[in-house]
UniProtKB/TrEMBL annotation:
Organism: Holtiella tumoricola
Nudix hydrolase domain span: 56-193
Cofactor list: Mg(2+)
UniProt GO BP: nucleoside phosphate metabolic process; ribose phosphate metabolic process
Keyword 4Fe-4S: no
PANTHER family cross-referenced by the UniProt entry: NUDIX HYDROLASE DOMAIN-CONTAINING PROTEIN (PTHR11839:SF18), UDP/ADP-SUGAR PYROPHOSPHATASE (PTHR11839)
Designated name of the protein: NUDIX hydrolase
Keyword Hydrolase: yes
Keywords (A to Z) from UniProt: Hydrolase
Amino acid sequence: MESPKMEKLTALAKTRFLSLYDAEYKNRKGEPKHWIIASRKSYEDLENLYFNHGEEKTDAVVLVAIHQETHQLVLIRQFRMPLNDFIYELPAGLIDEGEDANSTIGRELREETGLELIEVTHLQDKLYLSAGMTDESVALVYCTCKGAVSTEYLEADETIEPILVSKEEAQKILESGSKLDIKTYLVLQQFILGML
């Protein structure tokens, strides 16, 4: 079976954090098709990646953080505009220009939760969140932290409530019917089972 082949990329819309592109390609039968891609990458970076086999860069970090003093899992409740509601998530953030995953971890943990990074215990790079819609990739980071949760370091456009949850509280969140990010759902299950 022949793989589809992208032939042309056209920028449709660009914002500070996200852009839309039209990918023209031929399907496995050779028929011309279009696919809309949401990306955090610039047109130049995508063009280099798709047509010149350039290096793919990780877009963000997602943090599975255990609070050292309490052995609780660090979560956030964040208002997300596409949902027009709050959702339980793991702390996360974009890798800024000039940073890599490692240099982003402590900054994002502090910004979103007020907590201080102690140690990264595992980092799995280039994991994809919704490959049918976006090329966004993340580094999933397991780490330990300390301190008290705080909203002092949030950016103006962030509406985030950082929380520490016990296994019992994690179970209640899963049973509550609250909106959950899928990564958070899976990590809460791991946490309850003692796998973290």
